[in-house]
Specification:
heterodimer, A: mainly alpha, B: mainly alpha, 3 helices
């Protein structure tokens, strides 16, 4: 595969999937540290197997059966909707309007909840199994969506997106296993900021392609669109900081 | 899992509802432009969509900033 195409298609899937894998790993770590590793690891494997079945049936069917232009139009719309949500939330977090996502706080809360539920020795830990299964399946479903979205062009794009997601999964799992602590050093808001811009850019790019547009330089125009989204978002952060009184903080939904 | 899907849907359609509705409107305008405008319009629809979405994001965040400022002001009173 052309290295430029590989970078364009694999990097967004890698970064976007890494965010989801960090969230799943945090919860599995919390279960493992609190209640032992057997049940959460079995839960993780079971969720991975469930995901493989979902992707093998739905994902491949969608990419191979649905006409390419229709798929690009639908996926482009969904990417734009999801991307705008991520981007908006990341901008509000940087501006101090919504609290920064704190992986350590989530980890500690999960540990406290699991300890409160207690653990009976000798019996299989179904709570640990289910918590890990649910977390991995939920975040994994989002990874599957990301792979299908970034690989919507089919063929090499799908291969690159899958490779990016697998690489992200291995990277985060190895890091989590080595540290056995929540991955607080991963700058999640920065990642969401970048991924939000990338999802929006791919959404605009594919939706326009589905309508018959040929972008100048084809996929090479994507970095330009990403840069435009990032610049507008950065300006929005500056604007929000100027609007809010100095030192003000509003932890509120529905702003 | 269903709780997660539900929270994503709620977040997408209710929490950030105005942004989602605005984005859908921008997509509909882009589609109408490409369909009615012919081949020449098809070659600019992407840029039109990009500008509309950027304006939409900045306007939505500006409004969110004003709402947040009003909340801070009322909390300080």
């Amino acid at each position: 595969m052309d290295p430029v195409a590989l970078a364009i298609h694999a990097t967004p899937a890698f970064v976007a999937s890494a965010v989801e894998f960090v969230e799943a790993t945090t919860i599995v770590l919390a279960v493992g540290v609190t209640r032992g590793w057997r049940a959460p690891l079995i839960g993780t494997l079971a969720a991975t197997a469930t995901l493989a079945v979902i992707i093998a049936t739905l994902g491949v069917a969608i990419v191979t059966i649905v006409p390419e232009l229709l798929l690009k139009g639908v996926v482009g719309s969904l990417l734009l909707l999801f991307g705008l949500r991520w981007l908006r939330k990341a901008v509000l977090r940087f501006a101090g309007i919504v609290a920064i996502h704190d992986e350590e706080l989530i980890y500690l809360r999960e540990v406290a909840e699991l300890r409160a539920q207690g653990l009976q020795r000798r019996k299989f830990d179904w709570i640990g199994f289910l918590v890990a299964y649910k977390a991995v399946l939920l975040e994994g479903t989002e990874v599957a969506f990301i792979v299908i979205a970034f690989g919507a062009a089919g063929g090499t794009a799908l291969t690159a997106a899958t490779a990016g997601a697998i690489a992200a999964g291995l990277f985060v799992i190895v890091l989590g296993a080595a540290l056995r602590q929540p991955l607080t050093m991963v700058p999640e808001n920065w990642l969401k900021f970048g991924v939000g811009a990338m999802l929006c850019s791919f959404g605009v790019f594919w939706f326009a392609e589905a309508l018959g547009m040929t972008w100048p330089g084809d996929a090479l125009s994507i970095p330009l669109i990403v840069a435009t989204f990032l610049a507008a978002s950065w300006l929005a952060v500056r604007m929000l900081k100027a609007i809010l009184p100095q030192g003000a903080r509003v932890d509120a939904r529905n702003v | 899992m269903f709780n997660g899907i539900w929270s994503i849907l709620v977040g997408l359609l209710i929490e950030d509802g105005q942004l989602a509705i605005g984005a859908l409107l921008a997509l509909a305008i882009t589609w109408a432009l490409a369909t009615a405008g012919g081949a020449s319009a098809q070659q600019v629809v992407g840029w039109v969509l990009l500008v509309m979405v950027l304006v939409l994001v900045v306007a939505n965040l500006y409004r969110a900033g004003l709402t947040a400022r009003a909340r801070v002001s009322s909390a300080q009173r």
